[in-house]
Write a structure and sequence with these properties.
The chain is an alpha/beta fold. It contains 12 helices and 7 strands. Strands 3-4-2-5-1-6-7 form a 7-stranded mixed β-sheet, sandwiched between helices. The chain is globular and about 50 Å long.
Amino acid sequence: MSCTILTITNQKGGVGKTTTAAAMLACLHRRGARVLGVDMDPQGSLGFSLGLDIDRCATLYDVFRGSAEPEEILVPTETCDMLPSNILLASAELEFNRPGREYLLKTALSKVAENYDVIVIDTPPALNLLTVNAYVATDRLLIPMAPEVLSLLGVSQIKETIESVRAYYNSNLDVAGILLNRFNPRLNLNQEMLELAQAIAEQLNTRVFESKIRASVSVASAPAHGLSVVDFSPTAKPSLDFENLCQELFGNQFPPEGAKGGE
């Protein structure tokens, strides 16, 4: 079975990208998948959320500048292996200006992908070189958004970048769907945002996931414990919602525990 690469993206910050990436890694790990997390955000939030000391480890910056191999910077966590990042990666736009710079991540992942079933990439809140690298390397995009107008605007602006990457670097780039985070179906604004999200999904030839992630204090608390919300509070509403999302994305490729028929 070949490795699937999933990128979590939205140029708007605060929409739950890192929460979603960490939750997907945890859900897949629970289902027995071999998973790798990749942090393309110089803030290093994914590594931090999974308990890494991101200021004291080698990072993707070292790989991109040619001073380390991907397998040399791999850090194991309880959930997955990680390729971490920190603030040094913020210089990528200026520092990595040689031809082919859009393929830095794809080249790095090609050296380790055979060891994993799924790779999950977290991206910065910007449509820059780091985000383009993620799009070039990935199979599928998952676009989280909060039920608010500015978050929706971020989704609509992604369309042009996706089309450019498809035209020049990765013709097979697929948009798996739009995910609504912090969703409350009882609020009129949330229902209005759902309708607008469905309209944008049509423009992207994709869908809004049936799974909507409900709000909970456990989402904010989990990173302080170095855990995804799924591992920190497995019975919390968001954790159950992320399990449903994992099922939507991967179906029976990785069946949930206890659903393998006779095992």
